[in-house]
Records
---
Amino acid sequence: MPPAVTRQDIEVVDANQLRIPKERFPGMRVDGRVFVKTDDLEALVHDRALGQVVDVAHLPGILGASMAMPDIHYGYGFPIGGVAATDREEGVISPGGVGYDINCGVRLLSTGLMYEDVKDRVRPLIDRLFELVPAGVGQTGRRESKADLTEAVTRGARWLVDRGVIPAADLARMESRGQLDAADPQVLSELFEPETARAFGLLGEGELCVMIHTGSRGFGHQICDDFLGVMEDAVSKYRIELPDRQLACAPTVSEEAQRYLKAMSCGANFAWVNRSTITSKVRQAMSEVFRDGEAGRRVKLVWDVSHNMAKEEVHEFDGQQRKVVVHRKGATRAFGPGTADLPDDLSAVGQPVLIPGDMGRCSYVLVGTAEAMRTTFGSTCHGAGRLRSRTAATREFNANEILRELGARGIYVRGQSKRVIAEEAPLAYKDVSMVVDVMADVGVSRKVAKMLPVGVMKG
Amino acid sequence: MGSAAASAVAGFYEVIAPAAPVRDERAAVVEAEAPDEALAFARAVQKLVALFDIERFVAAAAEVALEPGPPARCRISMRGESFDPARHPYGVEVKAVTRHGLVFDRAARRVRLVLDI
């Protein structure tokens, strides 16, 4: 298990950062660096996730620091909220640094409608989405042929463009244009940077938006599981010493690692197809509920982010441009202005970053910065971070009470089961505003807009 | 060590179908190979996940045979039946056998597997 990190092992850098010097634990190749409010470290010190930051620092070829964002919590091997960049030529790639849910991510859709004008339609919209979108294990829907599945996982979202399911314009608003080799209506409640929000394609305060949060499901899970086995053999073959077997890895230039990258890309493409298909269902539901085909066509993709991925990127490190593999497990890419892979109309602004909160409080739209490129290999937080495990949440929280309380606040919730509702209890999560504030104070991502939930569908 | 590993297998099925009266109706065997015993056992238990997902097999009793190798080999031989929702209470879905915190301590006869549920 990860080492216990005590108060003596930690140096407070400033109000928002702490450091675990590499000299504190044998085998660490770089420091640990955690972005978190440092005025009260008591709870954090007892969280074994800090020990996982220490473990990740053992990875061969890791550069800079083993980092964690303020939504840090305990995971398998890597902590959730972990970021680790490894040298492309000298370092390793680890499936544990991506996680089981490859390309779990979030997208934001603008509807072009103001909530106050359409609030009586939110409930039927949620109900219709509940009918159209299969949610949860064992649900059935349309079956695709093996040939179609192959197309989907190799071509990603482009496959859906060719089938006429989504418009080509959507591709420009996805990382990697939606291809590598749980819709939540939200209302825009507060704009911190109106110009930036408009550049992203948002109307303004009061707009009804939809947030979709899902990943590669069992497909990505199987890929991770299969390649853990491949990497375990590689660890033995390449004589790599690791403190946790879940960090199993192989040199990025090795055949094993290249095979994993290709398989991971298939998982990523599957997730983009997944989110894009749900987007098409949102457009369909909007057209039906508003009895207006234009309502569906007005739905625009603002942006799509991944928060479980390993990406080959070029970053400046030690004064030089360096090819690296950035592992983000429960962390989001946050590229600053002028970075490659941004569409032309956002190049001067920076990359949108979508941070989903719990279903009772709020979510955020942020923007990536040049500081992120300097400090965190272009990375920021991904969400609220759990305070309670799913199991603990089902013991502590009552689904009916949650539904009553949220309903009294005007938030309509549909869940696949009472268990899912309890697992997703708002108080099972940290306050996302605190997480986002840390990253804003550090300068890694700025707040653009805040969104309040008005309807939730949980699968 | 075989009995400790067999206890871990029993614990695995306890997660899926807690306190279930499982009948001895048919046999099932899974085997796995890995650089060491701990991984061989973890991989073998991972195959039990697939066995449940595809054939809905739950075990009444299990025996675990280990060869240290290298390569290490693990064979889990079981007697059981197909999961019957009418008789077997469903616990939680096991999605994977992680390698996180994997313990396979011969001296202490202790096994630990962390399951992703």
---
Amino acid sequence: MNAALFRITPTGWAGLAFAAFAFIVLPSVAGSFWLSVLTSAACFAMAASGVGFMYARLGMVSLTQVGLMGIGGWVALRLNYAFAFPFEVNLVVASIVTMAFGWLLALPALRLRGLYLALVTLMAAGGLEILFATFKFPNGGDGFWGVKLGSLEPFRGPALATTPEAYLRYVVACVTLGFLFIEAHLRLAPGRAWAMIRRSEAAAMAAGVNVTLYKTWAFGIAGLLAGAAGCLLAGSLGLLDSGTFRSPESIMIFALAVVGGARSWLGPIIASVLYRVVPAFLASWGVNTNLAYMIFGAGLLHALITAPNGIAGQIHEAAGMAARKLGWRP
Amino acid sequence: MINWFAYLAAMAAIMLWLSWGKPFAISGIFIASGLAVGSLYALGGIGMVVLYRATGVLNFSSGAAGAAGAMIAWQVAKWGAWPPVAWASCILTAVILTVGYGRLVAPLLAWRDTVVKAVATLGFALIILGLVSFLWKDDPRSLVLPTDEIGARFLGLRVTVTRLIAFGACLGITLGIWLFLGRTETGLKMRAVANDRDLSALLGVPILKVETVAWLIAGLLAGFTGLMFANLIRLEPVVLTFMVIPSVAAALTGRLNNTALVLVGGLSMGVIESMLTLSPELKGVRPIAPFVIAALVLLYNQRAARLVFAERG
């Protein structure tokens, strides 16, 4: 087995410490409103990690990540009402189905790149938005679409997590696994292939890297994470609303993944905090939440022009400098 | 050329299928309304293509600039100004925002990937959207034009003059831009820059000036489409900001470089979207039409392409 696979870097330790903090401390101190905000933020962190990793490692822009989350959520709700599977089975199936959708989306990606790829994913996001708005999310009704008016059927959450506190812990554990899943990929053959493709597709091809396979693979991982995130979001709320998965949201989550910094675990966390926690704070202080849009927009421009590694990159640099000053690292 | 005919034949077949068995008086109404909205998709797409070719920036903020303009126009009209002043204020706002971005922010990203430049305009769109939504609280509003009340009879159908203006302006502006690019010196320079920015700079083409003209055209079209969308669809900043997505779809049918194809693409998208209302099964998903058409055209255009090495920006 590859020894480097399990080596924990200082950044990795920080990430694990943060995961432990989010697992142990946050659910104990948050009230019911903040539990729901933090659970939703954790789900979006998982989705942002998928889109951020594709951008940072392959330069591929996907503007349909929240739409893919919607697919994961739809499949999870559909399975929940159609069969009596435990939540975990629904989670796995929803993730795999969304991964397949990711691959389907990757088919044009094999031939398109850069701007055209971003645009084709934007078209997909636009299409998914309309499908969700038209057919709605299953809520226990009959037929394939499973939608009915009136009272909702109860949603079966995970047996391990029956309270909101326990569910936040459950989601944090799943998100941590998702981050570790990406990290493991980066440390094995796919990571090396992606690094080479990012540097030069020509060199990668010449070195025998199957460019098509690895690009599709990346799309699949982003889809898998989005699907799991969608299912976890459905589990948190017990129902989904088509307004959550509109195409502007996909654009926003990509933008925030860039603002947060797409190269490390901290970036998607910052992105999801900006996306879910900051507007909730603004709302609880009585500040107009539209100001959040302005902050996000300015943050995106700032990140693109001056900080290519986003806020997380700046924090890493600052932490590195502090560590050197304290003599912790040569 | 064969592709053109294939596209037109496919669109005509879909329209025929959708209107099969319906009297012309019914399907004609949807064609007329679709042509008006399609004209705006096309105009949005043309503004995008002109700017993209000259500067390499795919401007996602044109919808937001139009939204800001439309809200200003509504406000100016509410203050009791003479209506043409309100309309002019819409176009002026969009021009100031667009040219301002083009001169102040875009140069900072001039040497980055096209996708980074496009994403940056999203940031600008979010700033405008946030500001506009902050200034005007969420209330139902409408932007009424005097031409909404005036109807003209055309092939036995009553069409409002606003819709005729949208369609006429679309044809006129497309022709005007085609003549401008083909017959004027600035147009020649714009084509040169679109073809090769570095070589044009070496030959002494004033890049900054040419780019500013392109941003100006984009701003004018953003203002005009914003005003018409606000009238024909809804005066709501979020809706208007993201009307840019079907415009991108129209631009894609012209492969981001051919304005005539964008015109055909935009018009056919509008008409098919509108005519889908006639189909009981598909009317719920009718706004999906531009995305499906754009995705199919994109895939069709790429059918012969193979995965080759990345090209320059």
---
Amino acid sequence: MEKKSVFRKFLYSQKAAPYVFVLPFVLTFLIFFAYPIVDTIVMSFQKVSGGGNEWVGLKNYQTLLNPVFYKALKNSILYMILSCALMIPIPMFLATMLNSKAMKAKGFFRSIMFIPALTSVVVAGVIFRLMFGELEGSFMNQVISFFGMEPMVWLRRTVPVWIALLLLCLWRWTGVNMMYYLSGLQQIPGDLYESADIDGASSIQKFRYITLPLLKPTTVYVLTISIFGGMAMFTESYLLFNGNNSPNNVGLTVVGYLYRMGLTQNNIGLGSAIGVVLLIIVLILNVIQLILNGTFSKKGD
Amino acid sequence: MKKKNTVLSVLLIIFFVIVALITILPLLLLFVSSFRPGSDLMRYGLNFDVNWATANLDNYQLLFSGQNNYFTWYKNSLVITVVQVVLALFLSACVGYGFAMYNFKFKNALFACVLVVMMIPTEVIILPLYQLVIKLGIMDSMWGIILPYVVVPMLIFFFRQYLSGIPKDFLDAARVDGCTEYGIFARIMVPLMKPSFAAMGIYQGMSSWNNFLWPMIVVRSQTKITLPVGLQSLMSPYGNNYDILIAGSCFAIVPILILFICFQSYFIEGMTAGGVKG
Amino acid sequence: MKRKLVSSLLCVAMVATMLAGCGGSSDSGSSDSGSAEDTSSSDGETQGTNTFVDGGTELSLWTFQELHVGFWTEMADKWNEENPDNPINLTVTTGESHSVQQKLLVACQAGEGTPDIADIEIGYYGSFLKDDYLLPLNDVVEPYQNDVVMSRIEMYGDQEDNWYGIDFHLGASVCYYNMDIMNEAGVDPSTIVTWDDYYNAGLTVLEKTGKPMCAVETADLFLPQLMMLEKGAQYVDEDGQPNIATQDHADVIDFIRKMIDAGICEIAPGGGFHTEEWYGHLNDGGVASIAMPLWYMGRFTDYCPDLNGKMAIYEIPVWNEGDTREVLQGGTGTSVLKFTEHEDLAKEFLAFAKLSEEGNRYEWEELGFDPIRSSLWTDTSITENQDNKFLSYFQTNPFDILVKNGTEGLTAPNISGSYSATYNVLVSTTYANAFELSTDQDAMELLESEQSTIVYDE
């Protein structure tokens, strides 16, 4: 009894309390993050099998030097770049338009544009897969035939596949990114524009010299999530092609290749090596980004 | 000047009406198609050419007939979402509170860990995590889906940010009144955090409800899979399931849409939480 | 590791109790999670089980196909009728195809959590074989040996003549002709013997009806595989190594390319014979013929209502007159996993379900799989049954072909070693390149570069 109360007293002390509060994070961090990271790095140098793992040195990484992995890497990087190129200017433009004083019914349009973000990626994938079907009557073929074009095969050719993937991304995330920009815009003090008006600045000048620089924190954030979302893209392609195999791997991404090797072909060692490559890419991107934004100095406090 | 503004308004509204139409078009397409037989989709494609004379509710009847697993999946998704939201909110709030209100050894190092977890896509560790879940014996169960993601760095970050606005004198006053450290959290801080719980609950709820890759890897049994995984499995080449797929996809959106209409501001706040103060 | 988890849960619970100590009623969190666990463990009612027998041995079975659940539970009931002294209680679990196979592989690696019996898709079979996760079935198959087509069991075997599986859909390949189109073109399919005949018939069909004679997949391999097997060529060599850069394979690709160039072969809409677009196209009479195994009959009855009564089944063409027309393709098989605790019972039940007359009747009548027991091919209660949806759908009787093929010398794919990895490359890049994207590239050159992308780890 005596012992218990001492323990209790300790637990309730102001010194111990913070550790108790952060304990759940420490535990899940160690078990479900740190351990798997170490495990995956170790396994990437092994051949993993039921009978026990066997060290194979760099063999898994050598195996990765093949055209299919290059293609997956290329696809992921291209997707990341293109999605960033679309997912920043378009939402920014829409948000500025929506935020303009002349605009009516802002809340209504804002809500409508947000709806796609509510749909599960699976539902979105089902719709887009069918919309981009190669039948003459599939929606996208009807659209292009309206413009006098012949019906086409969408999901087996490189360019149309990319159109479909990027449209899917645009459709789902424009509303959300626009919302980020809207809240960014609302933090810009109104008197800045007023004094610009007094100086006789045009709308374009105001956008260039006030809005754009002051939206930088929002842009940095949107860029960050787009970069990581883009590099880790898998589900969209999985659903568009109803599985992880796309014709000539047009939709194969790094995560898709990890899934194919690690889970479908049960080559856990190779899959881990892919994971490590992805990890390194993400870390490099992080560092580049932190340096570019000068965030290193800020993080300290 | 006034006139110019009106013209601008009209132009802007026309522009946004077009944008809004394009935005909801895919969902309308889905909705309209849910009244057509699934075999139509295969033969004619997904489009707006609906013969309203033959349109019917057969797909929905089939959906509600109970001759499929749809509502089992629905229930699974619902249970997982609720459990995960409750646990994640509670635990992450604790952690966020710990970071915001106390100074302790390793605090900065630990918080750096939170940021690291936030910055690394979980796909990187999906294979070892999968093996771990097998070792823990929680494969093919709800806990396999929930446990690895029960403490969410994003929520910790948000709660910390939210709480750092609260003066610490508050704490000392409560201590003087004789409340313990945990009492302060439970009785003073939790009520203060209510608005952020709503936003974060929605953020977490949306990501649990829509989560696809991890549940697909962890659960195997038809009766334990979640709704997104179940819907995806309907696209299998082994059966003609388009009737249920389309009606089921439609029906998967409806509840969220209703919630969204009722709690719009929370949704927007919750889903854009990361950008509030990045 | 389990202990760590338990302790972490304990800590969480402890925090909760301490909070309660201060008078707050914050135990709602823990009771929530408790009740949820009950829900998840109590469900599972839609898993298939047979009629419960008291004292029966518990057996578990994994499949990826809902239709198979009925087959297995019914067979378990029949087993219990015939073996009242040794009854079983079978639990059948289904799941999405890819994930079931993957989880089975991982469970095997871990050596725990495996079912007693499992349906395994052909694309994955090699992985299970090469790591010795399956039990040989020789002793339970041998009693049936004289009644069944042994090639359909031998495919799931090794060089030492151990047999590890019994087929579900490993079917005789046939050619399905749309007779509306064939009649319009004035071509009688029964006169088509060689691929050259087929090619010439295709030219006539194209000229008279404007429709292509056949289609080839870019996301699957049935047509080229069929042509290869007729030549006796395989995708993997005897040691299980990938071997796709062969002259036979290049010849097959050249022949299909020649048909495509002439306009008598199209790329299957949707890229495969199991896609939405393809079924719509087929049902609309968009193509004159298709070569697929007999189990594909079920796709016609399910997806092509408009073709009812219009399709006829004939033998597949061959390269040279007199060559073997007997090729088996497809290939989900069922096996007993070595981790089972009821080895003999599981094996005997499997053999009973798949090889007995009752099982074969069910497979044919409900699932449309051609019976492995050759005696049923001439059993008129089956072959003349006009109520059967498959027999009434097609103009010709599939059993005629089975009888003609006989039970000897059938060629089946070699699925050992690297077959899984090879298959993956073939259906994702090789055929897409060969027939659609790099049609000008020399076939041999293309195959060599494809071969180099196969990742196979022994």
